[in-house]
Write a structure and sequence with these properties.
This protein is of the alpha/beta class. The chain has 7 helices and 9 strands. It has helices at about 50-60, 75-85, 100-110, 130-135, 155-165, 185-190, 215; strands at about 5-15, 25-35, 65-70, 90-95, 120-125, 140-145, 170-180, 195-200, 220-230. A 7-stranded mixed β-sheet has the order 5-4-3-6-7-9-8. Helix 1 (about 50-60) runs parallel beside helix 2.
Length: about 230
């Protein structure tokens, strides 16, 4: 008998009436995500993750062959979608959370992604500059969903992103976050670390598939940001 919380499997289906070439041909991707609902943050798929995953799916033609790092992966829905769409993906979570990293591996296994072949997983703790940051190699895109879940981690996230953007000229940080308080803001930290931010409109996500974005996000206020080095 297991002494941990029971695992549940959640299915996410992404579809489109057009293929990668823009031709009228239906495409569909099914992703299975394991969740431990009584565990901590990283064992549950928070509402921001499907929004980011749908954005990646809608723009999947731009992902093929790109090198992508997802930070704070947890159940890794966005990173897995990117990998299934042809990107070279590295998933990461805190080095101090080995159970979370194992859960990320479980997500990969359920979606037939072979570690160190189809996808890679590393320990990466926000705000800590360990050797593995320099060993990641060239990146085109950094992903993160709901990393800004409380103010105490805001600067740790952005200082790590800032460092990675310095290592990878032209790369961008694409992230979704759930607005939990109107008093919380990253604006002053963006200025401090010389970062610019563009807000993407998510209202048209999944239009080709008939997705109702309001049903997807429910009562949550979700924002999609593109953060880059300020020129």
């Amino acid at each position: 008998m297991s002494d941990g919380p029971p695992e549940t499997l959640k299915k996410f289906v992404f579809s489109s009436k057009h293929n990668l070439k823009g031709e009228p041909q239906e495409e569909q991707l099914e992703v299975i995500i394991p969740e431990l609902l009584q565990a901590s943050y990283s064992f549950y798929t928070w509402p921001s993750a499907p929004v980011l995953a749908w954005f990646l799916w809608d723009n999947r033609q731009e992902l093929v062959g790109k090198k992508i790092l997802e930070i704070g992966s947890g159940t890794a829905l966005p990173g897995i979608v990117a990998a299934k769409c042809g990107a070279k993906v590295i998933l990461s979570d805190s080095t101090t959370l080995p159970k979370s990293l194992n859960h990320t591996k479980r997500s990969c296994h359920l979606n037939n992604l072979v570690l160190n072949e189809h996808i890679h997983i590393i320990g990466l703790t926000w705000g800590l500059f360990l050797d593995n940051l320099d060993l990641i190699g060239k990146l085109d895109l950094i992903l993160g969903s709901d990393c800004f879940y409380e103010p105490s981690v805001f600067e740790d996230v952005l200082v790590s992103v800032s460092y990675l953007l310095d290592l990878n000229q032209g790369a961008k940080f694409l992230c979704t976050y759930q607005e939990r308080s109107s008093d919380w803001s990253i604006e002053h930290l963006l200025a401090k670390w010389n970062l610019s931010c563009q807000v993407h409109n998510i209202n048209n996500l999944g239009v080709s598939a008939g997705l109702d974005i309001h049903k997807l996000v429910g009562d949550h206020s979700i924002h999609l940001l593109e953060i880059s080095r300020q020129i």
